[in-house]
Each structure stands twice: as structure tokens, then as C-alpha cells.
Write a structure and sequence with these properties.
InterPro entries: Ist1, IST1-like. This protein is an all-alpha fold. It has a domain at 6-148: Ferritin, CATH 1.20.1260. The chain is built from 13 helices and no strands. The model is unreliable at 181-222 and 236-251 (pLDDT under 50).
Length: 267
């Protein structure tokens, strides 16, 4: 490696920031496409295949977060380049975390620009310092960077949480078994899932109402002989009224005739 070159180091920091941003955008676009595919798999009932893809997405999201951290450290070194450019055997505390994190995490990325920057920093501070960083002695590397590089299978709860958020965003009704056993709460959550991508959710209340059995209408039964006789007989109230009407009608007519005769006599 050639001796420390300030101009080259500064240019390499700029290139690293640009490439980190580009790679993040690319991976985020790929993750978006993968999430759409996962929602389609869940809609088709291929839950186990969707879970495997969710685990891959979780790993990609963690890697994107690592790229974001490295971008911040590159920007930090660029902003404090005056300190980085000093002739010192070890980095100043103001840039120590950034230098150590880049040296430690750069091999886990596919960016050549970041690899070149790592070599420049390792050459500046020497092999012994670089070996200490790679072993993370005295915890000089950021804990966040170390956690992002800790490769482990995600917990089932985390996979379920990711899968739940993906299906909710794409309007696909799915909930983990633990939530499905919740009865009314699961039904409420399913109804409230927002169909943001023109995928209609089933209306649970309407379907439940449509499945309620209705009482069939019975055919009309012809009346019996007793009922015919009862129908033919007048009711007590109606009989009294009819008799009153019949009795009062002649009286009214008689009164009218009497009045007429009296009027004729006066003439």
C-alpha cells in the first residue's frame, strides 16, 4: 500500500457514501418486491414458504441497517476529516468508533469502495491496531454494528410480526394462531385490516348474518267446520250494534214522516 494520501482518502469517503446510498435503495426496492410476493403466497395458503421468505427479508433488513450505520460513519469521518488527517498512531476518540466500525464491518459488505477505504484506514493505523479491531478488543466497535453482524435465526415471534405487518399492508387477512384463538379480538382485527391494494376483505358480520337459519313459512291450513260455524256466527259486539242500527233506522224514518205530516197539516 502507498503512504497515506489525504486527497485519495477524502475521495474514497465520498464514493463510499454514494455507493452505500445506492445499494440501500436497491435492496429496499428488492425487499418491497419480496414483501409483495410474500403477501401473494399467504393469500394462496402457502404459509411455510412465506415464513422462509420472511426470514430472508429480516436478514436483508438487518443488512440495510448495517449499511445505514456505515454510511453515517463515513459521513462522520468526512465531516471530521481534519482529525482523521492528523499524523497519529491511533485514531482520535472523536473518530475512533467510526474507524473501528468500518474496519470491522466492511468485509461483510459487497462494496469495493468500502473495501478500499478499509485498506486505507488499516494502512494508516498499522497492522497491530487493525488486528485489535478485528478481534474487537476493548469493545472499540459499536455495539449496534456487532449486533447487525450477529447471524442467527430469527425468533418465531419476530417472523410472525413481520408476516402480520406484510399481510396487513397488502390487505391479506392472516393472523398467527395465538391471535386466531382470541375469538372476538381476532375477528375485530381482521375486519379492521385496511385493504390498501384493492383486495377486498370478507365482511364477517354480513357473512355471519347470512348464515343464520330462517324459519320457513308454513302453508295456509284450510279452516275446520267448527271454525266455519264460529265465523258465520256474529260476534257479541257486532250483534248488539246491528240490532241497534236496525231498531234505530225505523225510528228515524218514522220521525221524519211525522215531521212531514205535521208540516202538511200546517199548510
Amino acid at each position: 500500500m502507498p503512504p497515506w494520501n489525504s486527497a485519495k482518502a477524502k475521495v474514497q469517503l465520498r464514493l463510499s457514501v454514494q455507493r452505500l446510498r445506492t445499494l440501500q435503495a436497491k435492496k429496499e426496492a428488492q425487499a418491497k418486491s419480496s414483501r409483495r410476493d410474500i403477501a401473494t403466497l399467504v393469500e394462496r395458503g402457502k404459509i411455510e414458504t412465506a415464513r422462509i421468505k420472511v426470514e430472508a427479508i429480516i436478514g436483508e433488513d438487518i443488512h440495510i441497517e448495517l449499511l445505514e450505520l456505515l454510511e453515517l460513519y463515513c459521513e462522520l469521518l468526512f465531516a471530521r476529516f481534519g482529525i482523521l488527517d492528523q499524523n497519529a498512531r491511533e485514531p482520535d476518540p472523536a473518530i475512533l468508533e467510526g474507524v473501528c466500525s468500518i474496519i470491522y464491518a466492511a468485509p461483510h459488505t459487497e462494496l469495493k469502495e468500502l473495501h478500499v477505504l478499509r485498506e486505507i484506514l488499516m494502512h494508516k493505523y498499522g497492522r497491530e491496531f487493525s488486528a485489535q479491531v478485528m478481534e474487537n478488543r476493548d469493545s472499540c466497535v459499536s455495539d449496534r454494528v456487532v449486533r447487525k453482524l450477529d447471524i442467527a435465526s430469527p425468533f418465531t415471534a419476530l417472523v410472525d410480526a413481520y408476516l402480520g405487518e406484510i399481510t396487513k399492508a397488502y390487505g391479506v387477512p392472516w393472523y398467527p394462531a395465538a391471535i386466531k384463538d382470541g375469538g372476538d379480538e381476532a375477528e375485530k382485527g381482521l375486519v379492521e385490516a385496511s385493504p390498501q391494494f384493492d383486495i377486498a376483505l370478507p365482511d364477517i358480520k354480513t357473512e355471519a348474518a347470512s348464515t343464520v337459519p330462517t324459519t320457513p313459512k308454513l302453508p295456509d291450513v284450510p279452516p275446520t267446520e267448527d271454525e266455519n260455524e264460529k265465523a258465520a256466527l256474529p260476534k257479541e259486539g257486532s250483534q248488539g250494534k246491528s240490532s241497534v242500527v236496525k231498531s234505530t233506522t225505523p225510528e228515524n224514518d218514522f220521525d221524519l214522516l211525522t215531521k212531514r205530516f205535521a208540516a202538511l197539516k200546517k199548510r
